[in-house]
Design brief:
Blueprint (H helix, E strand, L loop, with lengths): L1 E7 L7 H8 L5 E4 L8 E5 L2 E5 L12 E4 L4 E2 L1 H13 L8 E3 L4 E2 L2 H12 L13 H9 L12 H15 L6 H15 L6 H10 L3 E5 L25 H6 L8 E7 L2 E3 L12 H9 L12 E3 L1 E2 H11 L3 E5 L9 E10 L2 E3 L6 H4 L2 E9 L16 H14 L3 E5 L7 E3 L4
Parallel strand pairs: 1-9, 1-10, 2-5, 2-9, 5-7, 6-8, 10-14, 13-15, 14-18
Antiparallel strand pairs: 3-4, 11-12, 15-16, 15-17, 18-19
Helix pairs in contact: 3-4, 5-6
Length: 419
């Protein structure tokens, strides 16, 4: 029996899907525990590109069970559309895809509420994907949400949907249409429903290996991220238990996924952001455009202060460092080692956004390696300056780097065995 988690430890877009896909080879089940279709996971495999929003990345392996826990919020129409697209690519779901009946649904009304909130003058612009994720989580906490189990029975569906409409003051013009459509969706999803806490705990006791796949990143956690510029769920390791019913004491390894530089989509603080030619060079080399929205990502140097914080709150056991190849053509590379706030040095993250207004990053500069790493398969063959960069990140985060990614394909992954 064993279990591990693959978690994004920055602002999302760290390359989690590739690392999940790589590690899934030795897992029996891959489980999503939070987030919704605001997550965009991209995998490159044998010259094919697969983009996932809800389906766990392990689905590309024919023998893996893929699971959506109760902590995920699911747009049922988008889920069926994504499943259909993958089926047309030859990927089977029958018998190997499971969804917890307790999972909250994202309805078209949630998408409308999300768009209205983001577009209303005078309100803080969070920069959401406008997928309805926040309103769906809010309804779950307010106990008015619809869950997968509710759309399996038409009588229950009518009762819950009527309560939902009354709660938000929606006109009932489309009520019957929504009942018909949601019930039809429920009949299609019914075969995939299963109580996830029992499923996972029984698999674990049977000696199976479970891999938990995070969405977004730790700096977007609703409690411990850069609030209010965060996502609507808990993205850190503690959310595995609350999102799946799998107890925290059984989680044996936490792989923290870090980019070799930092990126962010949407609004919010970004201490090492580069609004210059260097930032544009990183964006171009890394193809830094959102898989879900297509928006250009903000780019900057590696922030060891923020990275050390997320390693701490997640209990990261080892690091997967991705997109190292993006830095192949830089003469020098910087790492932020401290913040200067009101003239005082600190190596700790602020706990409120007001402090971010006065932060000055303190950098350490390292020489670049000026050679391609994308064809390298062994750690010992990396340029010495690349290894020096990795070693410095290990020192600053006080955590070993066990995996280095030097390209998007599964085979462009280095498992570090050498010291």
């Amino acid at each position: 029996m064993s279990s591990l988690a693959v978690l994004g430890c920055l602002y999302g877009d760290e390359g989690k899907a590739k690392i999940t896909d790589f590690l899934a080879e030795k897992a029996d089940a891959v489980i999503r525990f939070q987030g919704g279709n605001n997550a965009g996971h991209t995998i490159h495999l044998e010259d094919k590109k697969y983009v996932f929003h809800l389906v766990p990345a392990g689905i590309l392996y024919k023998d893996k069970i893929c699971v959506l826990g109760a902590g995920v919020v699911v747009n049922p129409y988008q889920l069926l559309e994504e499943m259909g697209a993958l089926e047309r690519q030859g990927i089977a779901f029958e018998g190997r895809f499971k969804i917890d009946p307790r999972t909250t649904l994202v309805l078209p009304h949630h998408v409308a509420l999300d768009n209205k909130r983001e577009d209303t003058p005078g309100l803080t612009k969070i920069g959401t994907t406008k997928r309805g994720i926040g309103p769906a989580y809010a309804d779950n906490v307010s106990r008015v949400a619809l869950r997968v189990s509710h759309i399996l029975d038409e009588k229950v569906l009518r009762e819950r949907l009527e309560n939902f409409y009354h709660t938000h003051g929606f006109p009932f013009d489309d009520f019957e249409e929504q009942v018909k459509e949601l019930f039809a969706v429920g009949q299609k999803l019914k075969q995939y429903t299963e109580s996830v806490p029992y499923l996972l705990n029984e698999m674990y006791e049977e000696g199976k290996t479970l891999l938990f796949e995070g969405a977004q990143g730790a700096l977007l956690d609703v409690n411990f991220g850069t609030y209010p510029f965060v996502t609507s769920s808990n993205t850190i390791s503690g959310a595995i238990a609350t999102g799946t019913g799998f107890p925290p004491v059984k989680i044996e390894r936490v792989v923290g996924v870090y980019k070799s530089y930092f990126t962010r989509v949407g609004n919010g603080p970004f201490v090492t952001e580069l609004n210059d030619e260097t930032g544009e060079k990183i964006r171009t080399a890394g193809n830094e455009f959102g898989a879900t929205t297509g928006r250009p990502r903000r780019c900057g140097w590696f922030d060891a202060v923020a990275a050390r914080y997320t390693a701490m709150i997640n209990g990261v056991s080892d690091i997967a460092l991705t997109l190292l190849d993006v830095l192949d053509d830089f003469d020098t590379i910087k790492i932020c080692t401290h913040y200067k706030i009101d003239g005082k040095l600190t190596d700790k993250m602020p706990d409120n956004n007001i402090q971010y207004l006065n932060i000055e990053p303190v950098y350490e500069e390292l020489p670049g390696w000026k050679s391609s790493t994308c064809q390298i398969s062994g750690y010992k063959d990396l340029p010495q300056n690349a290894k020096n960069y990795i070693h410095r990140i290990e020192e600053l985060l006080r955590t070993p780097v066990s995996i280095v990614s030097v390209g998007p394909d599964r085979k462009q992954t280095i498992i570090r065995e050498e010291a």
